[in-house]
Amino acid sequence: MNKIKLTINNQTVYHPMEVDVLSIARKHFIGIPYACCGGGCGLCKIKVLSGNYEIGMASKTALTDDERKEGYSLACKTYPKSDLVIEIVRI
Ligand code: FES
């Protein structure tokens, strides 16, 4: 199982790749706000500063097309495909 290095607000953890960012953060006690865990509320918004990832199904109101283009994502629907550096977005 491949592991990735995930850096969230300057805190780095290592975790298997096949898991969403919110689950990784919760496992390592990194506080990303969340509510629905289903891509609907937008509370878990993050900005990806570097790395490759896929975004699962998410509401267009929780994450707009413009936000996607600017590197924003939702932690609960972000699946790392490489090491990632992200920032938590406080909304
Ligand atoms: S927790 Fe609601 S969109 Fe991620």
UniProtKB/TrEMBL annotation:
Residues covered by the 2Fe-2S ferredoxin-type domain: 2-91
Cofactor(s) named in the record: [2Fe-2S] cluster
This enzyme's EC code(s): 1.17.1.1
Q: Cite the GO molecular-function annotations of the record.
A: CDP-4-dehydro-6-deoxyglucose reductase activity
Write down a Pfam family by its short name.
Fer2
* Keyword Iron-sulfur tagged: yes
Q: Which SUPFAM superfamilies match?
A: 2Fe-2S ferredoxin-like (SSF54292)
Q: Which domain of life is it from?
A: Bacteria
Q: What are the UniProt keywords, alphabetically?
A: 2Fe-2S, Electron transport, Iron, Iron-sulfur, Metal-binding, Oxidoreductase, Transport
Query: Family assignment?
Result: Belongs to the 2Fe2S plant-type ferredoxin family.
Q: What is this protein called?
A: CDP-4-dehydro-6-deoxyglucose reductase
User: Which species is this record about?
Assistant: Aeribacillus alveayuensis
Its lineage reads: Bacteria, Bacillati, Bacillota, Bacilli, Bacillales
